[in-house]
Design goal:
Helix content is about 75%, strand content about 0%. By secondary structure, the protein is mainly α. Helix 4 runs antiparallel to helix 5, helix 7 crosses helix 8 and helix 9 packs antiparallel against helix 10.
Length: about 200
């Protein structure tokens, strides 16, 4: 029962924050959506911020696990990157409210939320640096290159989500894949891999 209540609170928080923004979301709006009492809310969380952090950690944990599984299923860097990016975009598209929470509203949720966001991005950057070692065109300054890739991809996703287009994120796969691969494989190979990810009806 306690676990079910906690899940309902976290889901309600994502819904409320997505609709109203973090700053305009109150504990009252969360408990109304969750169908729990104020006492129950405070049995699980000390504040709105504490609940947001729990919801953020839970969502990022699920997304990360799915992406890591997809990536780990391939030995080849290109195929692993394609699979991970495809799964990431699909998972984000499946729950726009949660996606808006972790991509957009996290920026307004206070210093601890921003720190956790930085930790997630840092871990992703380090993974790209490690995975890209020994590729044909490993760039000078691979750490900065990986950081630039992560920042650029995140900004593209942020732009779409902030416009209410989270459900269309999977459409970005070919072009995002190209931009992730080109620093490591060069234009022609990256373009070839982009073409493989286009819908069959697109030439």
């Amino acid at each position: 029962m306690a676990g079910n209540q906690r899940d309902r609170i976290l889901a309600a928080l994502a819904g409320a924050v997505s609709e109203h923004g973090y700053a305009n979301t109150s504990v009252d709006s969360i408990i109304k959506l969750a169908g729990v009492s104020r006492r129950t809310f405070y049995e699980h969380h000390s504040s709105k911020e504490d609940a947001f952090l729990a919801a953020f950690d839970s969502a990022v944990g699920r997304i990360t696990a799915a992406v890591v599984r997809a990536y780990s299923g391939h030995d080849d860097f290109v195929e692993a990157t394609r699979a991970a990016l495809e799964v990431c975009l699909r998972v984000l598209a499946e729950d726009p409210a949660v996606t808006r929470m972790v991509i957009v509203e996290v920026l307004s949720a206070g210093p601890e939320a921003l720190q956790r966001r930085r930790e997630v991005l840092s871990a992703l950057t380090d993974r790209i640096v490690h995975a890209s070692q020994g590729l044909p065109e490993t760039p000078i300054g691979p750490q900065l290159t990986a950081e630039t890739i992560v920042g650029a991809v995140l900004q593209v996703i942020y732009n779409r989500v902030s416009r209410g287009e989270a459900d269309r994120l999977p459409d970005l796969l070919p072009d995002l894949l190209y931009n992730v691969l080109v620093p490591f494989l060069g234009h022609q190979r990256a373009a070839d891999e982009r073409a493989k990810s286009l819908p069959k009806s697109v030439s």
